[in-house]
Amino acid sequence: MLVILICIVLLILLVSWAKVNPFLAFLMVSITAGLLLGIPLTKITASVQKGLGDTLGPLAIIICLGAMLGKLVATSGAAQKIAEVLVNLFGVKYIQLALVAVGFIIGIPLFYNTGFVLMVPLIFSVVYKYKLPAVYIGLPMLSALSVTHGFLPPHPSPTTLVGMFHANMGTTLLYGLALAIPAIILAGPVFAQTLKKMPSAPLDTFRSEDMPADKLPGAATSFLTALLPVILLMASTFYLNSNKTPGRVHDIITFLGDAPIVMLISLLVATFTLGLRQKKTMAALGGIYTDAVKDISMILLIIAGAGAFKQVLVDSGVNNEITSLLQSSHMQPLLLGWLLAAIIRISLGSATVAGLTAAGIVSTMVVKDPSINPNLMVLSIGAGSLACSHVNDGGFWLFKEYFNLSIKNTFLSWTIMETLVALIGLGGVLILNMFV
């Protein structure tokens, strides 16, 4: 525990005080952690490389294609058109709530990082056009994405936990929705009221000059193209959940519903609808895509660095020591599940790893003890897995870099929002446990 604390403090000091590049800081701290935690010298580098590869493997395609799609949505005027339609429907006064609703709807089928890179252009288009505070407008939408990622099936962690605890998917989803709404409202729009004056200069990659109305793509084209990944993922998820019969069609839908394939299809469609059909040449589109990848290259490396640090901690076995200490205590099982997930999340950074690790520890207890509601345990661990996101979490760096915030202000906005979601989720679970 002391080594983990030293390494986290060292990481914070390197990035915030010494101004070391975050990717280099992660490499230095990961190697230092490996040495202090007793990983053999011959295996430290392998652990770092595994963490880099395992983290970037599932995310690189999604983030890169998402950035390309986002850049095209911004430069084509589609984001401007979407923002105008939303403001006309809800008014500038309620645009924040409109974005929260969109974030919640698309967050149910979308993996968090995919939803993040898809919605950032929409957030920034509203911010630029109507000169609104970026963090105040953006954080509530991202709180909706975060809650759906931690609480609700079909996301990987809650879906896996449902199976481990023999819970009911529909009941868990129903309870999760009941918890998600107050968590999003309180940690999103209500908390964001305190962030109106937080300075933020978001990445220029999604900034586009206002275009004349007659040059903008149509509203239907703009919405359908920007939301095509959501539509494809929702459609494939619905089909696969309602029809589990194996066969050729099932395999094809599974393939087409995979996030990287969905993003590739969406970008190809956008290349036509927002590119070629808008009289852009392939050379011009290639330049847009190249610029988009350049803009997010450092973000990819930072996320990979966080993965390396996480893997060193996992390989050292320190997470097992933490959980052994907690298991020997005698506390309310739902609170224990939340606390286990929260501590592993704080130590390792990954919400999914925290949720699955905590579930593995308490799964036998949940199955054998009929007094423990398995649906609520899924939600309790899901809430705990979101607690206190900080410098070892890729989501922390996505938010910091996209919104161009200081480390301090990222803690004061992102970290507090995630912690509020976790605490509100725990409170909701304990209240529900009194009645169900």
What this model shows, in words?
Its main location: membrane. It is a multi-pass membrane protein. One of its GO terms (cellular component) is plasma membrane. It is a single chain. The chain has 436 residues and is an all-alpha fold. The chain has one domain (2-433). It is 78% helix and 0% strand. It is built from 19 helices and no strands. The radius of gyration is 22 Å and the shape is globular. The model has no long low-confidence stretch (mean pLDDT 86).
Q: What are the SSEs and their pairings?
A:
Elements: H1 2-16, H2 22-36, H3 41-75, H4 78-90, H5 95-107, H6 112-130, H7 134-151, H8 156-164, H9 169-192, H10 219-242, H11 248-256, H12 259-275, H13 282-316, H14 318-327, H15 333-348, H16 351-368, H17 374-384, H18 394-403, H19 407-433
Mean pLDDT: 86
From the alpha carbons, calculate the radius of gyration and give it in angstroms. 22 Å
Gross morphology: globular
Total helical segments? 19
Distance between the termini: 37 Å
Q: Level of helix content? A: over 70%
What structural category do the secondary elements indicate? mainly alpha
The number of distinct structural domains comes to 1
Poorly predicted regions: none
Task: Give the amount of beta strand, in percent.
Answer: under 5%
The main sheet comes to:
none
Beta strands, count:
0
Helix and strand succession?
HHHHHHHHHHHHHHHHHHH
Subcellular location: Cell membrane
Protein name: Gluconate transporter
Transmembrane segments: 28-44, 56-74, 94-127, 134-152, 172-195, 216-240, 252-276, 296-314, 334-364, 376-399, 411-435
GO molecular function: gluconate transmembrane transporter activity
